[in-house]
Amino acid sequence: MRLWLKNPLAILGPDCAGGLVVDGDVIAELVPAGATPAGPVDEVMDASAHVILPGLVNTHHHFYQNMTRAHPAAINKPLFGWLQALYPIWARITPEALELATEMAMIELMLSGVTTTSDHHYLFPAGMEEAIDIQVEVARRLGMRVTLTRGSMSLSVEDGGLPPRSVVQRDEAILADCERLIARFHERGPGAFVQIALAPCSPFSVTPQLMRESAALAARHGCRLHTHLAETEDENDFCLHSFGRRPLDHLEEVGWLGEQTWLAHGIHFDPSEIERLGRSKVAVCHCPTSNMLLASGQCHTLALEAAGSPVGLGVDGSASNDAGNGIEAVRHALLLNRLRYGADRMTHLDALRWATHGSARCLGRDDIGRLRAGAAADLALFRVDEDLAMSGAHDPLAALVLCGATRADRLMVGGRWLVRDRMPVGIDLASLRDRHHRLARRLYG
Predict the structure, then answer these.
(1) Which DSSP string do the residues of 365-391 spell out, in sequence order?
(2) pLDDT tens digits along 206-222
(3) CATH classification of 2-54+376-424, choosing from 2.40.50.320, 2.30.40.10, 1.10.3810.10, 2.60.40.1930?
């Protein structure tokens, strides 16, 4: 079936003011202003009230954390104190809780225009050995694209790390499960819906040996690597004290400094380190909301891009962000980066680029994140005529970012509508919210 999304109010794509044609699960054609599709179409949708974006791509999250939003134990604390307060609480996670948290996180992302998301799950207490399997099942049921990163922690507080012993695993068990997940779930090539990446949590929660062996395993299987790095000055101090080197030097020492790697946060790099990252094509996921809430600092986004590093966006965990809204993160990225670079150097188009094409590059994909013929039919459609916040806006595309859009009107993944009229298709949202909230209070209250 060929669907023409005709004459959108605005569209983030090249020479396609006349809209685009979706054929099955891909974009078949971009239509210039005043033109009609070159081939026949089976259905026409009048998009004159919609702003069309490539589906947003979220490259860093922790789904399980939406069970502990605004938790009293962690409010008003910097990262290390925040983690130390929440690790013992998170240790009570159950398979039921992870399934509900994953479904809630994905739907929250979909409603905000996200069509592809990554998740960094690194909690594997007893009974949670198949955590990633649970997430795969939810993603397939909802129809969203995912890169699920098999996170890991092997250094407990007794070993000089931060997490309690109950949530860490032995290196051997971690690597064996990574092998299992890649063999069972990892899809390769354009159009993939489920991909697996390897993601030791951070330098202060895993052994150097696990970092090295994860890199070797990823290279053998053609998978990507992900970790938190240079998020806080405390992390820099930890690496200097524990390893005698800064986080980026540690990353290079364990074999991670290459284009297979994308990093979360990447705040505290000096100019020479930014140049090294760019030369190595290491990507960085900017997490503006989380960085502001935890007061971690500001990522050198434009400097990283200028050096050669792809830059993407992430909402980060719902406990450090207290939300999981993709289009909201775009606005926060614009505002935070204007403080560093100025209003003339940092535009709404830069922030939208990070959330689409830049994020796709973080995940090593060129089939998503842009509107072009042959790309996946992953689309986010917003309206600017139904929210008071955007009344009177003159540039519809800029209005999504400057005026603060929060919810997509429609969302398409692989040619299939997952959101219509600002609601997820086939989902009882009230029931989901009730079950999620009750379980969060019972487990973590």
Answers:
(1) -SSSSS--TTSB--EEEEESSS-GGGT
(2) 999 999 999 999 999 99
(3) 2.30.40.10
